[in-house]
Amino acid sequence: MRGRGPEKELAEEVKALLGGKCLEANPSRPRRLFIRVKAEDYKDAVKRLVEEKGMTHISTITGVDTGKEIEILAHLFGRGVELTVTTAISREDPRIESITDILPGAAFYEREIYDLLGVRFEGHPNLKRVLLPDDWPEGVYPLRKDFKPGSSNSKGE
After folding, report:
1. Beta-bridge mates of residue 65
2. How many other C-beta atoms are found inside a 10 Å radius of the C-beta of residue 45?
3. Which of 15, 87, 117, 124 lies in disulfide reach of 98, CB 3.0 to 4.6 Å?
4. How many other CB atoms sit within 10 Å of the CB of residue 7?
5. What span, in angstroms and rounded, lies between the C-alpha atoms of 21 and 44?
6. DSSP-derived secondary structure for the chain
7. Distance (Å, rounded) from C-alpha 95 to C-alpha 90?
């Protein structure tokens, strides 16, 4: 008989740790856990997962423009489980607190999302372009749904 996998145990621990701030905890497959938090709880959730649950390695941070909002996904690793902290922010004013003071390895990933999706990571020590050329038009983000390559302003307007 198989026991509970580490992702299921961690899901229960995360729910207890974060309480109502954990909107969802989904162990999707072995050694893989997704949790969802509100944007205002994102930094605190990451901090508590690092400090209290040993999720000390950041694999990457990704951003997705869903058309309605921008999702931020911080992929953490520890205790043999890949845990993704997911939250959603406004497309019109995409801002969220930086986690670089908790996980310094987040610095490059946050800059990349800033560059390609226009998300402002508040408190980031060096939030500037990292991939796009210096002469790239301000306010044009190539991973946004409204980006149209080849038009006069790359937004299709």
Report:
1. 70
2. 22
3. 124
4. 22
5. 9
6. -----HHHHHHHHHHHHHGGG--EEEEEETTEEEEE--GGGHHHHHHHHHHHH---EEEEEEEEE-SSEEEEEEEEEETTEEEEEEEEEESSS-EEE--TTT-TTHHHHHHHHHHHH--EEET-TT---SSS-TTSPTT--TTSTT--TTSTTSS--
7. 8
**Residue whose pair of structure tokens reads 């209290």 in the numeric block:** 52
Residue at token pair 């999707």? 28
CATH number of 6-92: 3.30.460.80
| The amino acid at 25 | A
**Which residue in this structure is represented by tokens 């994102």?**
42
Unique residue bearing structure tokens 């003071």: 101
Q: Are strands 81-90 and 69-78 parallel, antiparallel or unpaired?
A: antiparallel
* pLDDT value of position 4: 78
**Mind listing the pLDDT tens digit for each residue in 67-116?**
999 999 999 999 999 999 999 999 999 999 999 999 999 999 999 999 99
